Amino acid sequence: MGSATSREPTRNSWRGTQKGPRWTKAVQSCVDAFEGRVSPQEVREAFEAAAKEASVSPE
Fold first, then answer.
1. Of 5, 25, 43, 50, which is least surrounded by CB within 10 A?
2. Alpha-carbon 10 to chain mean position
3. What letter would DSSP give residue 59?
4. Residues 43, 33 contacting (CB under 8 angstroms)
């Protein structure tokens, strides 16, 4: 955990960005995955859609 990961810029990019309905759905999909209702792939797709909606690169 000592060095920055490639995901850090993406996480920081959400700051100051308005979070729309796809972001809310993505967060709910995380809860759903923990409860076994959706697959990890569905969570990833939900967050990619949220990133696109917010003009934040998921990579």
1. 5
2. 9
3. -
4. yes
pLDDT interval class at 18 (50, 70, 90): confident
Q: CA-CA distance, 36 to 33, in Å (whole number)?
A: 5
- Assign residue 29 a region (left: φ > 0; alpha: ψ between -120 and 50; beta: otherwise): alpha
Supply 47's token pair: 């967050």
Whether pTM exceeds 0.70:
no
55 φψ region: left (φ > 0), alpha (ψ -120 to 50), beta (else): left
| DSSP line for 1-56 | --S--TTHHHHHHTTTPPP-HHHHHHHHHHHHHHTTSS-HHHHHHHHHHHHHHTT-
Give the number of residues written for the chain: 59
